[in-house]
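User: I've been going back and forth on whether these two constructs are worth ordering. Before I decide, could you fold them both?

Assistant: Sure. I'll take them in the order you sent them. The first construct and its structure tokens:
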Amino acid sequence: SSRPCRALAPPGLVPRPAPRARPERAMALLATKPPVVYCIGLNYRTHAKESGMAEPKYPVVFIKPPGSIIGPGEKIVIPAVCHPEEIDYEAELAVVIGKAARNVPEDKALEYVAGYTVGNDVSARRWQLAHGGGQWCFGKGFDTFCPLGPRLVPAAEIPDPNNLDICCAVNGQMLQKSNTKDMIFSVKKIISFLSQGTTLEPGTVILTGTPEGVGAARKPPVFLKPGDSVTVAIESIGELTNPVVADTPASAL
């Protein structure tokens, strides 16, 4: 298969994929609001290193509300409550669960996947790290902070989700470039872990972590601002582009 993240060339990061047969059931799972969006933090070795944090012994789990999901081309809205210099991008492989999974063994975990898509774990770093009380959900769960798309690729078309090029560009400048094989916890390990004692319902979305190159870790830092365009691309799936705008109402905080 092609390795689309190796070069940034017009009109985008990834050649438009040829149309393929996509099961209606799998597409419906992406089209409707999922019951929950699980996210895994610090799941790439190089990202943990750039963050100055030790590699976790267990997956770092947090949740985004389903209401934070937007699609390709929709606007990422910077809330008025956020500081102008704190909104960050995070390129992520998103997994969509296809059938109820509970206490799933690791070697069977991929059998429960309906498909894969591209995600962007948009993050307000000040609210995530300084004012979140030690919890990440508020700073990562604002409206529009979970772009997903452009399509759901059936699991059968991606036999190994841990060997995909992944990248992110802001205004055409490549800022993240890696491969999902750098994950600390593989996709099947994540699914197995999350399913222990907990039923993962069909439609559940799992964001599997981001590689190195996030804006907050760069020197100088790079944060999203109104007028920016951010594109995340993953091999064999496609590219997800969203414009960035500022919210208009004033904040009560």
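The second construct, handled the same way:
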Amino acid sequence: KLSIMPRIKTKAVSGLDGSGPSSSGAGAPLPLASFSLNQPANSFGNIISGTTAAFDAFSSIWGQKQTTPGALLKAGLQGSEQRLDLKSTVVGLVQLGGLLSIVGGVLSPSGPGGCDHNAFERCCNCATSAPYVAVGVHAIKNRRTTEGKAWGASMIGVGMASTMFHASSGSWRQWGRRMDYWSIATSSSLLLRAVYPNLPPALTAASVAVTPFKPFLVSALNSTAMELKFLRRARKHPQRLGKAQMLHASTCLLGLSAFALEEFCPHIPLIHSAWHCLSATAVATVNHLLDDVEKSDLGLIE
């Protein structure tokens, strides 16, 4: 149980959804909650269907300017595609909240990071920041909405901030690290807006405003909401999104493994570069979700 989990003192985490960087430095927004399509139905499955349905309904109602409390409640209740077990849903939400609280408290950014042990590793970490830029360029070219293109531009910023962090030294290194995890959190906010097109602008603005103070929390919440929608869409349309979601989940798990290995064995050569590549691949697969949202929700076709 969460209550008996040992306390672990560690440095920052990078990318778990775009949170602050790990103790080893920069990283792309690796989503917090990654799941496979074959997991058994349980209380968390109820959360996936209920939460994302209510979120979609809320954003839809907001887009129609029907923002009375009664309309929002009605939309949330009607938006769910299946009957939910209230007890298991509440239990699942409490479990998720407890997990986020523990992770947010333990994995807080600190220090300048220590992943660039020599000139060769520094060069490799700078070079492997390029895939983030490539993801951003691809999104700008292929996304059909302003929100999607804005997220693409933010991914270019993530790559540049990562490069700046790994290339910096001395007193500039700590500032480089701050820019790294601030850019990741901001990118996660813009990604959420692209995934939920009718999300209230005030919510996005508030998320960005909180970023300098709680980048990990911002990234974790945004990425969790995105993950839930990706999984829900993939389970609903396995032919269209099943393979992409499986690749997404696999690269997330491999990336988390690389991150954990780096935390306990920080001197393994090029482990941080591997983390860069895996997290960039995980983020790249989100384009499949955005493409589905643009076609299904917004009716935008090339």
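Notes on the second construct follow. The two ends are 49 Å apart (CA to CA). The mean pLDDT is 74.
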